[in-house]
Amino acid sequence: MRPAFSVLFLTTLIGAGQGLLIALVCGQLFLVVGTGDASLSGGFYAMGSLLALVLLALGLLASFFHLANPTRAWRAATQWRTSWLSREVIALPAVMGMAVLYGGLHALGWDGALMHFANGKSLDLTMAVGFVTVLACLALFLCTGMIYACVKFIREWHSVWTVINYTLMGLASGFVLAAAYAASLGAVVTGLYAGTALVLIVLALAGRAVSLWRNARLKPLATLKGAIGAPHQNIRQVTQGFNGKSFNTKEFFHGKSPETVRMLTTFFLACGFAAPFVLVALGMGSAAVLWLAVMVQYVGLLAERWVFFAQGNHVQNLYYQRKA
Question: Considering the entire predicted model, what is its pTM?
Answer without folding.
Answer: 0.90
